[in-house]
Amino acid sequence: MQGVYTEQLLPVLSPGRHRNPRRGACFMEYASYLAGLRWSDHPSCTHPSVAALARLVNDVTSDEARSRLTALIPSVVGLVGNDPRVPLIVSSLAASSALPISSEIRQRALAAGLLRCERLLAGSSGPVTDRTRATVRAALDRAPAAEAWARAFEGEDSVTRPRPIAISDEAILRASVIGIAEACILDPDERLVRLLTKVIAETSEILRPQRISVPTRMPVRV
After folding, report:
1. Beta strands per DSSP E along the chain
2. 78-97: per-residue pLDDT in tens?
3. Spacing of C-alpha 192 from chain mean position
4. What is this structure's pTM?
5. pLDDT tens, residue by residue, 38-86
6. Are the beta carbons of 83 and 105 closer than 8 angstroms?
7. How far is CA 200 from CA 51, 89, 206, in A?
């Protein structure tokens, strides 16, 4: 019988976790697939903070817009490193994007987180840190009532000597991503894509990931 050739199908992006590629893939499961690693939504090929944001954005983005995220997946493969600035940069950019457009209650929580980020950023230097610091201040300036509430709630001493942000601070990331998704705006999907794109670009500049070869998915003979 003459052999028939078909192309191997790539996973389709969809929310949540998936047992295997045939059932679909979230952003990070797709990244593990491209990297040739064991199927996982927590692959070792991507920094935990960037991966946490990617999973959240993947899950809340609309079905119509989620396919746009596919183009970003190769850029997180190999994006690894131990630079302590990365979790802070990711949290700061996410909360800055969400603060001006979120509901009042969520704004207060985000403002409290950004005040801590601002103080911690003051102890770092570099182009990415400088840009992020400016982004944080601009976001706080656009929500003065939320900043005033956060300062009054925590107290100036707490803001001045903040607790360190965890390496994968999913609390502030979750509040940020859901805040954008549920905001009364016309373009939540566009803002989420821009946020993830910016985070990948800025953390790439810090980590300078090595180029790794991505396995080629060859046609399968049936």
Report:
1. 5-6, 220-221
2. 999 999 999 999 999 999 99
3. 9
4. 0.83
5. 988 999 999 999 999 999 999 999 988 888 999 999 999 999 999 999 9
6. no
7. 10, 10, 10
